[in-house]
Design goal:
six-stranded parallel sheet, 8 strands
Length: 216
């Protein structure tokens, strides 16, 4: 087994979930008579969990916390019905995971999705059991960019932080990598793009999943 391992972000890194997330939240906005957003706008709403996504999507003049909470709950219900409609692994992801698995590279997933949803999503799209650890957001637990969850995942993998690559598509992921003492790999194919990743401290930028094997 390699003395290096990798932690993957989920949405925008392994899976293109943007359309299903956008459809879910736009459905909530439409039900309240509010303006909906184009799918590309959701690239900049995601990354900090569904509650923050909803806060960013609702009109700025909506300040009533009870209304926002209702929208968050409604978005959860909408997404629970839509989460696999248009979502799929990015091109090259399955092949890259297969190659890493053949080379016995330890792999894990760390997402800001709720933990049960993360387990369910990974089990559905990646049933071959590539990952030693799959971790989502726990109630009252720390989430990215706090380094604590990443450090816990690395410990469960039997690796020290400097033995871990952290691959993600957003500034949240790169902040996590830097603060955890891991090597940040930026997924340029994801939601945010090269510039944000570099500004957030990415050590390396990958243009495609196929480039992963070069790091092991």
């Amino acid at each position: 087994m390699s003395n290096k391992g990798i932690i993957f972000d989920l949405d925008g890194t392994l899976l293109n979930t943007l359309q299903d997330l956008a459809d879910s939240v736009n459905s909530v906005l439409k039900s309240r008579g509010w303006a909906q957003h184009p799918v590309d706008a959701y690239r900049f709403f995601v990354g900090d969990g569904l509650p923050m996504l909803v806060r960013r999507a609702v009109p700025e003049d909506v300040q009533d916390q009870s209304v926002i909470n209702e929208c968050i709950q409604a978005a959860r219900e909408e997404y629970s019905r839509r989460w696999a409609n248009r979502t799929a692994p990015y091109p090259g992801v399955l092949e890259a995971l297969e190659e890493l698995a053949r080379n016995e590279i330890p792999m894990a997933v760390l997402s800001n999705k709720p933990h049960e949803a993360t387990l369910h999503t990974v089990g559905h799209f990646f049933p071959d059991g590539y990952f030693q650890v799959v971790q989502g957001a726990l109630p009252n637990g720390a989430v990215k960019p706090d380094p604590e969850p990443a450090l816990e995942v690395a410990a469960r993998m039997g690796l020290k932080p400097d033995q871990v690559y952290f691959l993600g598509d957003s500034n949240v992921d790169m902040y996590t990598a830097v603060s955890a003492g891991m090597t940040g790999l930026g997924a340029a194919w994801g939601f945010r793009g090269r510039q944000e990743l570099l500004q957030a401290g990415a050590h390396y930028i990958l243009e495609s999943p196929q480039e992963l094997s070069a790091y092991f």
